[in-house]
Known about the structure:
By secondary structure, the protein is mainly beta. The chain has one helix at residues 143-149; strands at 2-3, 5-9, 13-16, 36-38, 41-42, 50-51, 60-63, 67-78, 90-101, 115-118, 136-137, 141-142, 166-175, 184-187, 194-196, 201-202. The strands form 5 sheets. Strands 7, 8, 9, 11, 12, 13 and 16 form a 7-stranded mixed beta sheet that branches. The protein has a 3-stranded antiparallel beta sheet with strand order 10-14-15, with no helix packed on it. Strands 1-6 form a two-stranded parallel ribbon. The longest helix is centred in the last third of the chain and has 7 residues, at 143-149.
Amino acid sequence: MRRITLHLSLLALACAVSLAACGNDGDAGSTANSPVTGPGKNTSDEPELPTLPAPRGPALRVDAKYTYKVQVLDAMTTLSLPDKPPLAGTTALAVLLRIEADPANRPIVAPAQDLQINFPSCISDQNQYLACQLDGGTNFLTEDQMRFGAEAAKGISGTLAANTVYYRWAWQLISEKADLTGASLCQVGSKDNCVPIGAIRQDS
Length: 204
């Protein structure tokens, strides 16, 4: 299965999620030992459907004005953001999130500011530009929009429909020298309500 090309900004930043970056050993493209399904036909001849990375771990349940669950699918540092690039001496730590209302049958609003990425130097690095919480994010997209919509998918920015899973890139401005050891996604103001982010790649 082909990994989908994910977009941090539908207009400005294209982020290809490689097989290796998602924890796959990259052998999905190998055809040497592929089974033959008919005379002269190999399974590699069949169309490859785009896929999303699997969630990296347990869901973070956010208990704010609205209640919902968040899972991390990917994480990277990047200098490319939709509006303007990070200032000198800073970069952006971006995470791809899977978001779902909890309970699922309620519409919700899930602002980026409900969440923060915690890491050892987060508090000590704070200044007028670095707030130690998520600074923004792309619009919310459904799975079909993520997989098949490409840059034409605009998504939504307000109320999220009930019984629907959404995806978005969200980012936090950090120091270029930040110690990201053991970085975790947390509900703002709750050091105990966190989930690990996992491996953080560098945007190519």
